[in-house]
Amino acid sequence: MSQQYDEQAIPYQSDQGTAYAHDNGSAPTEPYHSAPAEQYRPAPGSLPEYTPPPRRPRSGVRTGAIIALTLLLAIVFGTGLFAGWQFGRGSAVVAPPATSQLQPGTNQAPTVPSLNGNNTEAVREAVIAKVRPAVVQVNVTSQSGSGLGSGVIIDRRGYIVTNNHVVNGAQSIEVVLYDGTSIKNVQLVGTDPADDLAILKITPPASNLRVATLGDSSKLQVGQDVMAIGNPLGITQTVTNGIISALGRSVNEQNGAIIPNAIQTDAAINPGNSGGALVDMQGNLIGIPTLTAIDPEFNTPANGVGFAIPSNRVNFIATQIIQTGKVTHTGRAALGVRVADVDPNLAAQDNLSVDHGAMIVSVVPNGAADQAHLQAGDVIVKIDNKQVTDTASLGDALISKSPGDTVSVQIYRGNQQMTVSVKLGELQLNQ
To answer: Average pLDDT of the chain?
Structure first.
């Protein structure tokens, strides 16, 4: 049974919900990780005032205009002709040029004292004072109505990171700063739908713009304290606290957005928090809150299960968009195939030698698999030392790989068993 995710945006001036989902047709798709059913929703929009939303039916449409976005938890795959990616684990990942580094703010931020066990409250207050002025409200008008989300100022030149689903389809964008200053002349510099990230640009009204400092998400530990800052339900500059519940979650949204190495947290994330700040107790931005879970049995928000895009991924993507307006290096390994599950029915239908594995449906021209002479009809049964029984396990086998890694791929081609060495490529985006 596939693990399901449901992403919600709650616009405050719209009467129509817009559903986003992957194609559910019969065409073979990229492999997704199978797991017990469960659902997730993020928070791009908000209600105009705090009104507890009524329970909605399973149809996914609720009075008050909910934009439903169905998601799947995947280990390493998304849409398009690629397979097997994982960001930032190997030296083979291509980094943006050094000239694209973010520029820190000049405004002196409050000093955060070292946490010693007796000053938790003082540290928390200092972190909030340091980060909250860098968190903004993002108001969006689109054909379907109006909504809001959050954003974080990450560069003193006025660059703001938010979720792509916050600004997707926007006809106009307004940014409201911490002090209430409204900026309507907002530039959408670029978007990365595959990572659900977008970069906005404002002209800073003053030279003392508060800028968030990006932390190193690779150093996070499960159990450490974190806080989420954003505009849940339109209640501006709200802070919630919790811990890091898990690391290394790879979450695939069915609209194509994929969060590699997502941070799971129990800090409350609600509609309107999307694009805001997840910070550690030193006041470093360590993630961008994006998804929160719902209970599939009651279709209501589940307590304490939210996800954030890690700061290292944000830095990797944001610096490229700021410099070029697009993502030039994905940092994701690509096998360069489309695959389908092999089961006894397919094996009998296609007269295959095995009744399990991942059958290659098509190969990307000049991609990694093509250069290794893999071809449509080959059935992948093992990657290195990991058995491949279906497309999900193929994903599991490739989760730790990076562009440039060489893997041993065991296949069946007709009745012949073969082992092929494949040097993984880097996923290219169609931009």
So the answer is: 77
Question: For residue 161, which of 136, 184, 182, 180 has the smallest C-alpha distance?
Answer: 136
Q: What pTM was computed for the model?
A: 0.72
Query: CATH classification of 1-79+96-329 is 2.40.10.120, yes or no?
Result: yes
Q: Report the range of poorest mean pLDDT among 203-212, 235-244, 338-347, 355-364.
A: 203-212
Q: Which of 165, 280, 311, 402 is catalytic?
A: 165
Active-site residue 250, yes or no? no
Q: What's the CATH class of domain 333-426?
A: mainly beta
pLDDT of residue 51: 29
Indicate which residue of 250, 274, 393, 402 is catalytic.
274
Catalytic annotation present for 274: yes
The tens digit of pLDDT for each residue in 96-111 reads 444 468 998 887 788 9
The pLDDT of residue 74 is 27
Q: Is 373 a catalytic residue?
A: no
Cβ neighbors of 385 (< 8 A, separation 6 or more) are: none
The pLDDT assigned to 68 comes to 26
Per-domain residue ranges for the chain? 1-79+96-329, 333-426
Q: What tens digit of pLDDT does each residue of 48-101 get?
A: 222 233 333 332 222 222 222 223 222 222 222 222 332 233 323 344 444 468
Of 192, 195, 196, 378, the catalytic one is 196
Cα-based torsion angle of the residue sequence 251, 253, 256, 262 in order, rounded to the nearest 10 degrees: -30
